[in-house]
C-alpha cells in the first residue's frame, strides 16, 4: 500500500502543476480578451480541466492496474481562511477503492485550493494522500445492510455523505464483532445532537426503520 500511495502522490502533484498552468493561461487570456470572448474562454477552461481530470484518472488506473475502482469523487470542501484578497479551501477527494474482504481500503487526497480574488487565479496544492480501512457491508452484517439500504442517498449532501458512510462502517465492524447494540446506542446518541442537520436526520430515521423491520 505504501508503494501505491507514493505513486498516487506523484501523479497528483503533476496534476496540480498542470491544473495551475491551465488556470494561469486562462487568466492571462481573459485579461486580454474582449467582453464577448469571455464566455468562450470560460468554456474552454472547463473543457481543459475536464480533459485533464480524465487523463489523470487514467494514470491512477494504470497504477492500480485496472483491478480496483478509481473514484475521483469530491467528498468534502471547507473554506478555512478568507480575506478581501485571497481565500484558502481544503478539499478532500476519494481517489480509489480497493476491495480486500472483509474490508475496503479507501484512498483519499487532501488538497488546498487558493483563490486570488483580484486576479481570479486559482491554484491547487497537494497536502496529503492517505487511506482508511472500511468494513464491507453485506449479508453477513444484516442489520447494517438494512440501514445502508434505508438511507435516502439522493438526499444526502456530499459534505455529510462520507461521515455517514464512516458510521455505517463502524456499525458493520461492531456487528461482526458482536458489539452492535453498544455501538448503535453510541451512534444514536451522537446523532440526536445533530438532528437539526437534515442529512443526519435522514440517517437517524434509516436506523429507526431498520430497527423496526
- What Rg do the Cα atoms give? 21 Å
Mean pLDDT: 93
Supply the number of structural domains.
2
Tally of contiguous helical segments: 6
The succession of helices and strands, N to C, reads: HHEEEEHHHH
* Strand adjacency order, main sheet: 1-2-3-4
Beta strand %: 25-35%
Question: What's the main sheet like?
Answer: 4 strands, antiparallel
Query: What is the end-to-end distance?
Result: 40 Å
Q: Overview of this structure, please?
A:
It is a single chain. By secondary structure, the chain is of the alpha+beta class. The protein is 53% helix and 27% strand. The chain folds into two domains: 2-135; 142-212, no CATH class. It contains six helices and four strands, in the order H-H-E-E-E-E-H-H-H-H. It has a four-stranded antiparallel sheet with strand order 1-2-3-4. It is globular.
How is this fold's topology laid out?
Layout: H1 2-32, H2 38-63, E1 69-82, E2 86-100, E3 103-116, E4 121-135, H3 142-150, H4 158-176, H5 180-192, H6 198-212
Antiparallel strand pairs: 1-2, 2-3, 3-4
Features of the shown structure:
single chain; 213 residues; alpha+beta; 2 domains; 6 helices; globular
In short:
By secondary structure, this protein is an alpha+beta fold. The chain has helices spanning 2-32, 38-63, 142-150, 158-176, 180-192, 198-212, and strands at residues 69-82, 86-100, 103-116, 121-135.
